[in-house]
Amino acid sequence: MDARVDDTAIALAVDLDGTLISGDLLWECVFRLVRANPLFALMLPVWLLGGKARFKHEVFSRVSVDPASLGYRPEVLRFLEAEKERGRVLILATASAQDHAGRIAAHLGLFDRVIGSTPDTNLKSAAKRARLVADYGDAGFDYVGNSRDDVAVFEAARRSYVVAPDREARAWSDAHGGAILVDHGQTSLTDVVRMLRVHQWAKNVLIAVPAVLAHTVFEPVTLVHLIGAFFAFSFLASAVYVFNDLFDLSMDRRHPTKCKRPLAAGRIDPATGIKIAFGLMAFSVLITMTLPPLFGIVLALYFVATTAYSLKVKRWLLLDVLTLAGLYTVRIIAGMAAVGAEPSYWLLAFSIFFFLSLALVKRYVELDLAKISERQRLSGRGYRPEDKEVIAQAGMASGFSAIVVLALYLDSPAVYQLYDHPWMIWPICPLVLYLIMRIWILAKRREFNDDPVVFIATDWRSQLMIVFGAALMFAAGAVDFHALGL
User: How many CA atoms lie within 13 A of 166 on its CB side?
Assistant: First the structure.
């Protein structure tokens, strides 16, 4: 007899987190709560001490979630729609708050019943199993789940369907013949690298700039400190990227390109992302302990500033780009702290203007590519399409200001002390001008849509200008023109 003949008489219970949606509603609400008011981060441990049920109630009661913004798995939705058409009773059974689950069910229009957590009960694992068995009997329901918390429910269900399983759920499915509806495989190293945005580590080469300009970069102690500082900064920056993606999950899912990020696409679950982020932060702290104390202070300030940027500042008009320019400059200050170099106010002034120009070009491109009306704000930003020309003018003016600062520096006493032939490094001015003008022209042509700093670090023409500039600086200090008969 076909086992599916009586399926319509068997209720089908479906898990929410990681199953119906690719993310985790609790974690999404936690990050939305902290983004709305960072002081709530101090309350999270207090609520957790009261138990998981109270923790969920406190978080869910303070956050409103738009059901349309969640990352639903299309394969699961198609499966449920087909089962609904066959006449089956569908139950949304989740450890998330029942009222939130009710709004999700109403939005989808698929479920006949919703059961979820309450202030007194955390409907997870054994508790969910007991509730379903009490209502439908042992083996009186089918179940769709994804994680080790669902294994207890799998064992009480008549038939189990597994979605994007973790290790324990996959092992149970292999041993008991559970049907796998969606299988993206285990989290790959490629997904982790993309989540951490390792390509953005190129920005942290700025740490070496003070040592390069002071001609101490190849000293053994300096080199070791620079390598340590680079990785300490890179690990911390990647951790911040993870938290930033968690804060922006709903916006990223609606973005044409950011929706492909591993967290937004559901390739990596939030809990795994958080574990990796805290691991990277721990490694960053360990490395920092081997470096001068001043570097640790600068790194801590960077963390505070970049966290504030992720939470609030990036949504504020103009302050966001000024903060971005400051964060790039902090990398240079960190390089000074790591090697004990004297502060160069010429370098810091050049850095602020140069990176402000690049931050503005990034905003210009985002506005230019956004498909929004003239009076509508860019999602998650403080800009509107009519701001484009002002941004372009300010960006190019800032770039030219950086050239002026550079030209004044090249005629300063510091340069005459460092270089035997300072006139040889004057061509650096048009080289930097070329970098700035080219990136703005490409932006105007809509031929540029990358992070500008990463673009400069990976574009062969920009690399050629950088190599040529480095060669000029070397020659200005190392070539003996008298020996060459010049």
Answer: 17
